[in-house]
What we know:
Chain A is an alpha/beta fold.
Amino acid sequence: xxxxxxxxxxxxxxxxxxxxxxxxxxxxxxxxxxxxxxxxxxxxxxxxxxxxxxxxxxxxxxxxxxxxxxxxxxxxxxxxxxxxxxxxxxxxxxxxxxxxxxxxxxxxxxxxxxxxxxxxxxxxxxxxxxxxxxxxxxxxxxxxxxxxxxxxxxxxxxxxxxxxxxxxxxxxxxxxxxxxxxxxxxxxxxxxxxxxxxxxxxxxxxxxxxxxxxxxxxxxxxxxxxxxxxxxxxxxxxxxxxxxxxxxxxxxxxxxxxxxxxxxxxxxxxxxxxxxxxxxxxxxxxxxxxxxxxxxxxxxxxxxxxxxxxxxxxx
Amino acid sequence: xxxxxxxxxxxxxxxxxxxxxxxxxxxxxxxxxxxxxxxxxxxxxxxxxxxxxxxxxxxxxxxxxxxxxxxxxxxxxxxxxxxxxxxxxxxxxxxxxxxxxxxxxxxxxxxxxxxxxxxxxxxxxxxxxxxxxxxxxxxxxxxxxxxxxxxxxxxxxxxxxxxxxxxxxxxxxxxxxxxxxxxxxxxxxxxxxxxxxxxxxxxxxxxxxxxxxxxxxxxxxxxxxxxxxxxxxxxxxxxxxxxxxxxxxxxxxxxxxxxx
Amino acid sequence: xxxxxxxxxxxxxxxxxxxxxxxxxxxxxxxxxxxxxxxxxxxxxxxxxxxxxxxxxxxxxxxxxxxxxxxxxxxxxxxxxxxxxxxxxxxxxxxxxxxxxxxxxxxxxxxxxxxxxxxxxxxxxxxxxxxxxxxxxxxxxxxxxxxxxxxxxxxxxxxxxxxxxxxxxxxxxxxxxxxxxxxxxxxxxxxxxxxxxxxxxxxxxxxxxxxxxxxxxxxxxxxxxxxxxxxxxxxxxxxxxxxxxxxxxxxxxxxxxxxxxxxxxxxxxxxxxxxxxxxxxxxxxxxxxxxxxxxxxxxxxxxxxxxxxxxxxxxxxxxxxxxxxxxxxxxxxxxxxxxxxxxxxxxxxxxxxxxxxxxxxxxxxxxxxxxxxxxxxxxxxxxxxxxxxxxxxxxxxxxxxxxxxxxxxxxxxxxxxxxxxxxxxxxxxxxxxxxxxxxxxxxxxxxxxx
Lengths: 315, 260, 450
Ligand code: SF4
């Protein structure tokens, strides 16, 4: 029997997002499930951004400290180091504003950000600290400072989307909308945000990330369901590109920290890197177009993975 | 279709407080309202009620039946409370209903009580450990439950199979599995098995204004499949029930059919 | 896949004539599906349904068994493309490649035998050995095989041979084993299929690309080999994803029998990192067997974990094991919080406690994986059960205080728990996990003030 390729038919497509001022990058825009080049266009590769924090991180384990501790008291130097690793975008996480760390004021952060924007011309994602109230207070000011820089702002959640979305819109930025591992809630949040007049083609869904071994399968399946709803069922409220905030979740796990190398877990260095890379590659396969990562070696692995996938595109 | 008024439930704050204070007034008022709205039976849901469940159930049954001439559906996971309710129930108004047993050995005691008091019983088609995935699994559990019930000497006519309605907001695909289960449950015996649902769980967690809309339309689908009983807010579904009965030819059409 | 009760029911006459001894056709059909009744008991059943039942015993992707009596492995049998639809069946088998001319075969066998790791209550391991006939020499292969059998007599085997003579030679000494035979290609398919049929073992057919594989599976089947496994020889991750998608879609969406077989994938990679990534794609996307070039503890840990995650049941809310969990480094003064074992509840609560930076003893109660309110309504998160859990958990020895924090949703249980747990005070926590950090800070502050 002749084998005819069974192609899926699609009724939706993922909007393309471009961000950055002088240097721009794009992701999204595909018309089929991830990397199935034979049945739909994929104009862009997934994009990997490097995470930088605005104050010295308190919870980076040894393997990350080895890479970043010499630069982490200065976000600009930190970002430049990432650039030397080949970063195409930076995700600046404003941890200093968290009430449990230094509870920095919006004005202080604004000054820091101005300096950062002056010195770093990589496309920028600006992330709050995931504290609903504090993010609602700081992100609008940050959006305004970065007006014209065409950034991605995140993350708007159910409890604070109104102020954050309004300010992102005023500042001309794209926006990450985060819900907690639930397709229905992801859809609802996108509806609410677009009802405010926020352009649907500048929205990015964060279905809530997780690390291999710690809720991984929830994120994986929610992402697959979102992609299927957006592309196959053509649900416009679920067709936004997705972000996976991988590094944040991965480097909290025991597997990236436990130092006993004689245990059955083997070498910590490799273990940490593979934990981040496996988590990231898996979420690319389930539908993420944008990654936020930490370890440069893990990033290189994921880049190689993407190239290897793309190599079949031409055939 | 048998309509069981759901409003006397521990989930409601008014009812919970009335139960705690043994304040008969709100209980009676709500029972009467439901009776007037067309309920054939009143549900008394006292929740797990571990400590003095027997006392509460006894009081609830008496209070309800002082207010309305209807039988009571006894909803508790506490067997002592259940038995207390069955003992004081006034059977002149009809038999009480036991809500509920399931295929969890901890709940077989309710089958025992059903046999002892010759009362019909709701059989939830869930086993131990997790919710049913689809209609098929519900039917498998139903079959096992029916066998179990027969071991206790309960006649199949006295069993109401409950497919367990799940929340649309979190388990969307389960809605149609429930509809399918109702159809299949009926096929398990000849004459058809009786079926029942706790309707409003469908819209649990949904915005208030959507709840009646979701509930009513879901009931339409279930009635089409031959649902025999529903635990509902009678006021909310009155029009739906009457209208479906007209559409399916169960009652004769007249311009004023909604008014009678 | 065997027909379900409902599918059998659809094919019955639905007259409820009761001749089968059951009250209705559906009751009978359910029993047939469960294997507790025979279709022959229904005198009205048509020839059509009988033949369909026989046919349906063959699932769209067949299930293949191999291994030994004490280590039976099952592969294939999948019936969905996406994990959220239904639990993926038969987790990917991980095998290690061993070459027959490897001077350290014993070390390699040890790697396999010592690979097991405990994770979330399961023992995970490399399950099989792929013995590769790199030498192309029949006596070397026989020798290597005997060395394996001596050291690991029960290990499931995949024989990677280059000729049917070597296959026959090996299969004739394997007693109590059902190995997989690998090595059938377009050139030798007839001889290899005959060997597989004679010894009744599963056969891997290899060719570049799905289209080239199909004539081979058809030929092998015609020669009497039912248990086939496909190797479409992908050389890049892109090809792996594409080939596996074609095969799984063809089998599941179009019921194409000639691709309805499990897939074997030979991992590759410039280093161990990349081999792990390639294997990840195989596990996520339909490979039933993954043959690794090398095993290392960290690599095994990552692959075992992803396999365990992906092959978990999406419909049973994942449950966390009952017990007392430490978040941070709690001591005898740290707060003690109790909640249910719904995995999402656990992850959210644990995450928020971590955010608060306050070390906590987290008591997780087995409530069949239900969330707090549902568990309470179902009587599984009740005052007496919470009290019993606290008593039996051994937490009293770890604390110098007697304060228990319960979720805000079950505030009404406070008095009743205090009744049943003498000496304990119940504190009402927040309804939503997001409120935990603020709550904990206040709680600790007010406790210190006292
Ligand atoms: S004998 Fe056949 S037709 Fe008659 S009830 Fe049984 S299954 Fe149905």
